[in-house]
Amino acid sequence: MAVLHQIWIKRSHRGKMDAAMRANLITGRGLAGNANQGGPRQITLMDLGRWQELMDRLGADLDTNARRANLVIDSLDLFDSRGKTLRIGAARLLIHGETRPCERMDEALPGLQEMMRDRWSGGVFAEVIEGGEISVGDEVEWVSGS
Q1: 18, 39, 66, 83: which is deepest, by most CB within 10 A?
Q2: In the Cβ-directed half-sphere of 15, how many Cα atoms lie within 13 Å?
Q3: Is the pTM of this model over 0.85?
């Protein structure tokens, strides 16, 4: 079973990432209190297993907040998930595509940006299509028919 492992809220563009145990997802907007609101890239998600695999391959041990994704999911492969719907707690997210790693990844760890280009290792971005409160530990699953 996949679960929500971490929630990160970004205060401002290029700003600090704050850990949260709960958060509100707002339909058509994104994560309450997060700098990015509206548009198709309301939420960014990454798979914990892929992050750990990258860290092993690079001989590093960076915390997931270095990736700057809002939601870290444990045990859910996000590869090639464009157009799929994901349920987290009571909320639903429509995956719009792959999050391309930027130069900030190499600022965190040289070589990380290039390594993240394989198999959607940078995670995905999504739109909130049904809002609600989410909490660390919530079950995460693909919605049938998506």
Answers
A1: 66
A2: 13
A3: yes
DSSP bridge pairs for 17:
10
Write down the residue that tokens 């693909």 correspond to: 142
Higher pLDDT residue, 108 or 19?
A: 19
Neighbours of 37 (CB within 10 A): 13
Cα 102 from chain centre: 15
> Residue 145: what pLDDT?
64
| Domain span at 58 | 2-142
Taking only the tens place, the pLDDT of each residue in 52-77 is 999 999 999 988 988 889 999 999 99
Structural domains of the chain, count: 1
Residues near 125 by beta carbon (within 8 Å), at least 6 away in sequence: 40, 41, 42, 43, 44, 45, 95, 96, 97, 98, 99
Q: Which two tokens stand for residue 90?
A: 């009571």
